[in-house]
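Hi there. Long-time user, first ticket. I'm pasting a complex I've been working with (about 644 residues overall). I'd like to know whether the download I got is complete or cut off, because the file seemed smaller than I expected. Thanks.
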Amino acid sequence: MTKWGMVIDLDKCTGCQACTTACAMENNTLPGENWQDVLFYHEGTYPTAKLTWLPRPCMQCENPSCVTVCPTRATYKDDEAGGIVFVDWNKCIGCKYCMIACPYGVRFYADEQPVVEPDVRDVFPGEGQLWAPPYQNPESDARRGIGIQPKGVVSKCTFCYHKVSQAPEGVADLDEDNPETKEYVPACVRTCPPKARYFGDLDNPDSEVNRLIADKRGVRLKDHTGNRPQVYYLGSGADVPAYDPPSDS
Amino acid sequence: MNNGNILKGPLGTGLLIVSAAAAIAAFGYAMLDLMAVGHRSFNTSSQMPWGQPIATYLYFALASSGLGMIAALPLVFGFKQFYPLAKRSIYLAFIILISGMAVLAMELGHVFRMLWVIPFNLQIQSAMFWMGVFYVADLLFLLWKFQKMEGREWDSRTSRQIGIASFLAVLLASGNLALIFGMMSMRPFWFDGLMPIYFYLTAVASGLAAVVFFTYLAYGFRRAAMPAAMRAMFEGPLPKLFAAVLGGTVLFIAVRAITGLYTNNPEIHLVWRDFLFASPVYQASLWLGIVLPFAIMLMAGLRGNPAVQVLVSMAVFAGLFAERYFFVVGGQVVPLFRGTWEWGLIEYTPSLTEWALTIMGSAMLFALYAAGERFLNLSAMPDDFLAANGSEATA
Ligand code: SF4
Ligand code: SF4
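Hi, the file is complete. Here it is re-exported in full:
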């Protein structure tokens, strides 16, 4: 069975945020509520200080803590869909327990104060929907949390399921450089200028993602949580600095 | 005949009207905000999803459980001295839980959807599913037990069995509520297998504060007006129990604080150092709302004094509310990832709408309480117990 996975090479990532922008356009997320974001850190102090960054989508965990806490089964892992974790907007009651339980902070409640002003929900008010962006993704599937996020529910990255689900059966990798598959590649992967992101089938021994994980020692973020992400990081800096308050550093 | 209960007369009606009006006003204010801008009127965010409304619900739900446990002392365990508290405790447990649930209902994204999706999807892996099951059971058993007491059926077989069932429901409900937090290993400030014990202790502390305060209120803060058995309870066993429970609470907070400050793990250490102990409100609520009341209740000369008991119960009320608030928010203040959007601890202050919900719940509690005092006899005790402990008859 297909198990979609993503590989992000931090040695290639320039922190340009093209992925974040592409995701926001593709999925009509509210500004600042980035299903895919690049987090910038500084680590250490002079003379060893460095600036570092980390692109962060939902990890589509193999063992997702967001799923087990959800009292309504609105959040579910769909093994038929490559193991993507979805939120069924028709079932979610907005208790936000999943947001507490996700160790990666990648779940969003659109019915909250705007992260970025002005509030686009007021700039583009919607009729019967939370807002009406000038461009709206024609695909929508409330059962998988695809489309304009309604009020009162939680949303998250879907690995662009509306695209990857169209890919030919049994394909090993979805590569934006391959004309056969480029239309099915998740928006963040397709747009990444230095090609730091790869997308493919973790269950297929011949896939490029598996080769990269093996050859370049892919690691998973916060692996001690036991969530076992389906997103792997390559390169130096594939770690998360411990929280260090400004007052201490 | 009001037997000294001042709320049986116009005062009770007055309190009922005033607090019902306050509850309706607060509800109206919050509802208008929610209808106009939705949960944008809250200061919570995707990084701090649970704010003061959740803390309020937690506080009320646990106070209810505490009251249920207190009622179990005479009803399940045979500590007869506490009979004078039993009926009022069960009633308070019921109404405080209803008030808490009302606050929670205004916090959720889709409260009515909840009514069908939870039963139809049976996600038994979720502690929140069990919270629904246990608190609904708790509510029903409380109501049933109260109805038995109304029918003066204190000691029948069924009444006893319902009492036991109700006590078990209380233990399961509050213990499971503790695990909603305590099982979250990704939130190390909460992650603690002993969380249910901590919740039990603090639940009883807040339940005691509630029943002491509301009993005094019913009698116009005059102990002389109370029935003899109730006076005896306030003079003897109750303050000692209060002292013991507060002592347990202090001990628990102390060990959590010591381990928290000792560990290097920033997700626990910083919460204690930079959030809890850095906050004057937390400091005040800890020292004045929990530690000082404990010290006072330790003093044999003071703990029997009615004015002291009322003040201590009010201080503990406030102290534990703050404790719940800082507990809920404290589990979330350290960002999961430091970076672009968050350099320091996550800031959160409840909005006016969130305060309105806290006020709505509290006013609702007072209104239902006043109605209970006005129309029911909450000081009722079993006849044989009364016969043995003083001459006053029930109303
Ligand atoms: S990263 Fe978070 S939201 Fe995504 S599957 Fe894992 S636990 Fe769930
Ligand atoms: S907010 Fe929705 S998806 Fe998240 S746990 Fe609650 S019901 Fe489930």
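A couple of notes from our side: The radius of gyration of chain B is 21 Å. Chain B touches chain A through 50 residues (CB under 8 Å).
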